[in-house]
Amino acid sequence: MNWEQLKNATVDEVAAWAETQPWCAAMAACAQDAQWHAEGDVWTHTKMVLQELRRLDEWSSLPQRDQTNLTFTALFHDIAKPLTTEVDSVTGHVRSPKHAVKGEHLARAILRDLGCDLLTREAIARMVRNHGRPTFLLERSEPTHEVVRLSWLVNNRLLYLFALADTRGRDTDSMSRPEENLHYWKLASEEAGCYDQPYPFATEHARFTFFRQAEPNLHYVPHEDFRCTVTLLSGLPGSGKDTWIAQNRSELPIVALDDIRVELDIDPTDNQGEVAQLARERCRELLRANKSFAFNATNTMRLTRGRWLDLFNDYGARIEIVYLEPSLKQILAQNKARSSQVPETVIRKLAERCEPPTWLECHRLEYGDSAE
Fold first, then answer.
1. Residue 327 to residue 345: CA distance in whole angstroms
2. Which of 241, 236, 266 has its CA nearest to residue 256?
3. How many CB atoms are closer than 10 A to CB 186?
4. Quick one: fold of 3-192?
């Protein structure tokens, strides 16, 4: 089945399709700690969560889009447990550290291969990564900040509904965090005005500043006096970043890592330290001169991208990110047509680790599907 078929399928049909997939077999073979999951293996729990979704009071009134997002969040929320499950040598308990983080990447890869559209895929992937957040809200020092931050990554209403189904989809009476705790997520989101929408910051710079402050203040509205605007391009090699710049920012100076590699005669698979150093120097020259420019590199990983964003922010720039992602098939075909090809293995590895940018990182964010 492809995405067009699956997104219109019933919960039972989605579950039946999943059982034909190797990752589902791994879930069925993965044991869980009986204290939290007396029902048994991961796939048994997953099927119970899928059924609990349909028992939610709100289920029948949800738009099909929301039902689809919840269904696939349930399907993938524990998909990485077979990769992360271990037995604590001291307590003997079974645990799966960071399964939600790894699950985000697995869900993204599967949905990409199915042909899922970018916005839906990312909504589901981010739900998978953050599916456990409502359970721990009362342990946060600033619960309101938690729901505000998440509102710009996921829909808090859907996250709350999923948490209900996840809690109910198990056979155990020994939960130390009862279902009632989840209702605080709904209450906190409603009080902050971000239950079914992103939190309404006064300005885009107030939002940007909130997510970068060590001690964020929801009511702080910073003065806006940007020295320039930096447009950071993000996307796999061959995704169309050069074309996008030529069509949309042709008047700007460009700092492009590919151009610097050619200039320095450094292969993409070689050490990139000298390339990054020269790119940073050229960015600083433009920033010191208060000149807007475009920065063109893959920038597909949050940590790597963040180093550049920190630099631009240090110089008082307004930051916009443009993320481009045509299909992987199209990217590979376009790459073969380029004069300087990137090895296909490198592109596939980048795709596996790709973390598309979010509104937490910039003043303005644009998603597109351009191709060269």
1. 16
2. 241
3. 19
4. Hypothetical protein af1432 (1.10.3210)
- For the entire predicted model, the pTM comes to 0.93
The string of pLDDT tens digits covering residues 247-258 is 999 999 999 999
Where exactly are the structural domains of the chain?
3-192, 228-368
Q: How far apart are CA 337 and CA 183, in angstroms?
A: 54
Residue with tokens 């069509």: 247
252-276 residue pLDDT tens? 999 999 999 989 988 877 888 999 9
- Unique residue bearing structure tokens 């191709």: 371
Q: Report the residue count for the chain.
A: 372
Percent of the chain with pLDDT over 70: 98
Residues 206-230 have a mean pLDDT of 96
Fold annotation for 228-368: Rossmann fold (3.40.50)
* Closest alpha carbon to 125 in 149, 147, 100, 145: 100
Q: Residue 146: count other Cβ atoms within 10 Å of its Cβ.
A: 20
Average pLDDT on 59-83 reads: 97
